[in-house]
Amino acid sequence: MPTASCRRVLRPRLNACVSLAATYDPPVVLYVRGAWSECLERPCVAIVGSRRCSTYGQNAALMLSRELAQRGVTIVSGLARGIDAAAHRGALEAGGRTVAVMGTGLDQVYPRDHKKLTDEILKQNGALVTQFPLGTPPVSENFPYRNRVISGLSLGVVIVEAAENSGSLITARLAMEQNREVFAVPGNITSRNSFGTNYLIKGAGAKLVQQWQDVAAELPAEIAAQLLPPPSKKSKKKGELVDQLQLAPSDLSDHERAIFKLLSTDTPQQIDALVESTKLSIPQLTSALLTLEMRELIRALPGKCFVRKL
Prior knowledge:
The protein has helices at 18-21, 36-40, 55-70, 83-93, 115-123, 143-153, 167-177, 195-203, 212-216, 221-224, 238-246, 254-262, 271-278, 282-294, and strands spanning 7-10, 29-34, 44-49, 74-77, 98-101, 127-130, 156-160, 181-185, 207-208, 269-270, 298-301, 305-308. It is an alpha/beta fold. The longest helix is centred in the N-terminal third of the chain and has 16 residues, at 55-70.
C-alpha cells in the first residue's frame, strides 16, 4: 500500500469524529484510508463477535448488517475472521458503507487473506482506520486499543457470539464505559460461543437483538427517524385520502380516538409529542397506543414514533 494513500488525522477537532473525540482518552492520531468523513456522516453501529463463529452467528451478523446498511447505517467492525468479516460483508452486499478498524498499520492487513475484503471496502466508499503507524505488525496487545476505537466511533455495539473470555466482551465493556448502547444476539445455551452474549443479556444490561428494529429503537429519536423509509408516493384521489384520514372505528375509547386523530400516515409522531398534545399520562397513552397497535390501526416505528396505518 503506497504511503501516499494514507492520511493522518490529528485528534479530535475531527468534525466527522466527534463521538470518538468525546470519549475518555481518545487516540492522539488516527491513520485512515478511504471515504472516512463520508462514512461518519451517517449513524454508525458496530457489529463484532467471535472469530470462530457458528453458521447461526455468521448469518445473524450478515442479516443485521445488511438490514441496517440498507437504511443508511455505517457498519463498524474489526476486520477479524468470523463475525467481523460477516458484518463487513453484509454492509457491502447491501450497497452500504463499512469502516474496518485495524489493530495494525494500514499496510499490514490482518489476517492476510482479508486483503480482498479491504479492497472491496475501499471500492465501495468505505474506510480503513487505525491508531497504529505504517509498519505496525499484528501484536496481541494492540487489539484492545482497536476495540476502544470501534466502540468510540459507534452509537451502539452489537455483540454476535462471544465466549466467556472473548475480546468482544472487552468491546462491550468499553462501550458501556463510553455510554454507548450495548446489544447482544441471544445464542444456543449449550454453545460456549453463546456464554458471553447470553451473560450480557442476563446480567449486564445488554439489549436483546433479534432484528434491526431492536437496534434502531434504542437510538436517539432524531437519528432513528433518519432510518425510516420515505413516505409512499402512490397517488390517491383527494377525496379518498380525506375520507381515510377522518374515518375512525366507532368503538374507540376517547383516549384512543384522540390519539388516532393526531396521527397521520406519513409523518411519524414521537411519544413525547403525543403526551403534550393529548395531555394524557404515560400509562394512559401507552395503554391506548397498545390497543390501537393490536387492532392494526397504527404502527410503531424506531425511536418511539407512531404513524397511522394505511
